[in-house]
Design brief:
41% of the residues lie in helices and 9% in strands. By secondary structure, the protein is mainly alpha-helical. The strands form 2 sheets. Strands 1-4 form a two-stranded antiparallel ribbon. It has a two-stranded antiparallel sheet with strand order 2-3.
Length: 150
């Protein structure tokens, strides 16, 4: 083995360890907070990669997870949140419907109070996970099931 081979092997080892740390669930983190964090950080590959990875590593007895997510339209990681689960109102923050408009401009559109021209939206920084017991694939208190069109 050459010195270059040894350096490459060491680098690969460091990269494997670092990547494992990046995709590890946090202590007590629920599958929904984990998947949301992974999709936000690394995207969705149109599979349940993050959800089943969580299950395989931290909740191997939850063999029905993919079927349960599919039953609410969550056939891939991002669809879990598009079709079946959303943040509870308590963790949402108000966002302006028309950013940059003045109170006078909003009044032209029928908003006498600028506070009326807001909607609740997910915060830029996700709230801390409400935590679940080890081995659970249930959502923490930050998430609720919803029906599409609700």
């Amino acid at each position: 083995m050459t010195d270059t081979d040894a350096v490459v092997l060491e680098l690969e080892s460091v990269l494997r360890a670092r990547s494992a740390m990046l995709v590890a669930a946090r202590p007590g983190e629920c599958v929904f907070c984990y998947v949301a964090r992974m999709v936000n950080e690394f995207g969705c590959d149109t599979t349940l990669r993050w959800a089943t990875g969580y299950r395989d590593r931290w909740a191997p007895r939850a063999t029905g997870l993919a079927n349960r997510l599919g039953s609410v339209g969550g056939y891939c990681d991002c669809e879990i949140f598009l079709n079946g689960y959303t943040l509870v109102d308590a963790v949402l923050v108000p966002r302006p419907l028309f950013p940059g408009l003045t109170a006078q401009q909003l009044a032209l559109y029928g908003y006498d109070d600028p506070a009326e021209a807001t909607e609740l939206a997910a915060p830029d920084i996700p709230p801390p996970c409400g935590t679940v017991r080890r081995g659970s694939t249930q959502p923490c208190s930050n998430w609720r099931h919803y029906r599409r069109g609700e």
